[in-house]
């Protein structure tokens, strides 16, 4: 009689919640960058959003090809959450600067899409933070001492 082996259910990255959020983040950042390019916005807006597109695309390819499982010497969730935090800071700055002065409609739309990207970055960071806890089901909940049964 063979022992029963537990089957691990593997969900591809593209079909996971984390994958959907990251792909939505990529789409919003590309839209923001495209609007900045069409509106001929200042170069820092285009460069920062272009850099974010490149980094997000890198992480999506990394997770699709499961390279994070292959290269275990790097702690990928920590790098991903640091990237989310840096993206939040830069995109808030770029979006607010795009919205403040009297600019073209396309630049304002690029700023609005940048702010929506910030919301997606916060959601992405929250999903990654759960992985950083080393307990994906949530934080450890300590039981009170009086709930323990006395051994007699």
N-to-C order of helices and strands: HHHHH
Poorly predicted runs: none
Count of runs of 4 or more consecutive helical residues: 5
Distance between the termini: 40 Å
> Residue share in helices?
55-70%
How many β-strand runs? 0
Strand content: under 5%
**What value does the average pLDDT take?**
81
Which structural class fits the helix and strand makeup? mainly alpha
**Net shape:** elongated
Q: If you compute it from the alpha carbons, what radius of gyration comes out, rounded to the nearest whole angstrom? A: 21 Å
Q: What does the largest sheet look like? A: none
Summarize the SSE layout with pairings.
Blueprint: H1 17-38, H2 43-64, H3 67-70, H4 76-99, H5 105-132
Provide structural commentary:
The chain has 152 residues and is mostly helical. It is elongated, with a radius of gyration of 21 Å.
Short synopsis of the structure:
The protein has 152 residues and is an all-alpha fold. It starts with 16 loop residues before the first helix and ends in a 20-residue tail after the last helix. The chain is built from five helices and no strands.
Comma- or semicolon-separated keywords:
152 residues; mainly alpha
């Amino acid at each position: 009689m063979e022992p029963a082996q537990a089957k691990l259910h593997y969900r591809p990255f593209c079909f996971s919640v984390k994958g959907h959020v990251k792909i939505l983040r990529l789409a919003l950042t590309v839209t923001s960058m495209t609007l900045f390019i069409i509106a001929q916005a200042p170069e820092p807006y285009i460069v920062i959003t272009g850099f974010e597109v490149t980094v997000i695309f890198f992480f999506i390819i990394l997770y699709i090809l499961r390279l994070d499982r292959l290269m275990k010497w790097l702690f990928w969730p920590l790098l991903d959450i640091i990237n989310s935090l840096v993206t939040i800071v830069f995109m808030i700055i770029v979006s607010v600067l795009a919205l403040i002065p009297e600019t073209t409609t396309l630049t304002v739309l690029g700023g609005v899409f940048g702010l929506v990207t910030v919301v997606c970055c916060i959601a992405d960071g929250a999903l990654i933070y759960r992985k950083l806890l080393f307990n994906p089901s949530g934080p450890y909940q300590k039981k009170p001492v009086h709930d323990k049964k006395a051994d007699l």
